[in-house]
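chain below, 197 aa
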Amino acid sequence: MLGAWLTRGLVMAVVHAAAMTLLAKWSVFHPTDQTVITSVALAVLVGVAALWSAIDGWRGKPDRGRAWFIASLVAGVVSGILYVIGRAVFVDQTGTSELGAALTGGAAFSALLVLVPAGLGLFVGSRVRRPAPEDEEPEPEDDEDDGSGSQSGQLELPEAEPAGAPRPKPSPVSRPAGARARRRPTVAGRSPSPRPR
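prediction:
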């Protein structure tokens, strides 16, 4: 279980930090044209989390909800640290003064940007039906199936009890044998109509 949340958290942290660093670099060269690139980056981040968690839900991974919850927390904190490092190296020599904002507001936003799509992906992925395994041969269909599970024309008899086997005692609440004999059998679960006397 340790590998599941750690892998998801670290991969999502790297993806988020790379996207935020690219957005910061883009804003240096195109300060007024950020709407489209920001929307595309958010769509990619949401899509990665939703698709990966949907696959986990579809495959029926054990403890997937907890793994994605912890992964979102890890991704938030680690992506904040990686973003400050990436921005310092590739954009504008940002110092450690930006670390506080990246570990509070930035980490919370990144965690939510993993957690919400992952929850949606787990919900959708667990509802998608898996295909039947190809190894199994389909059972031959009986054209005259009566719905009882047995093939028509074959009579299924209950197993005979051994001669020396003790019979179970009747319940004290059960009706006497004479009263049971007078009742007619039911048809399709309905109670029989009363007999005229």
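The first helix runs from residue 2 to 29. DSSP finds five helices and no strands in the chain.
thats it, cya
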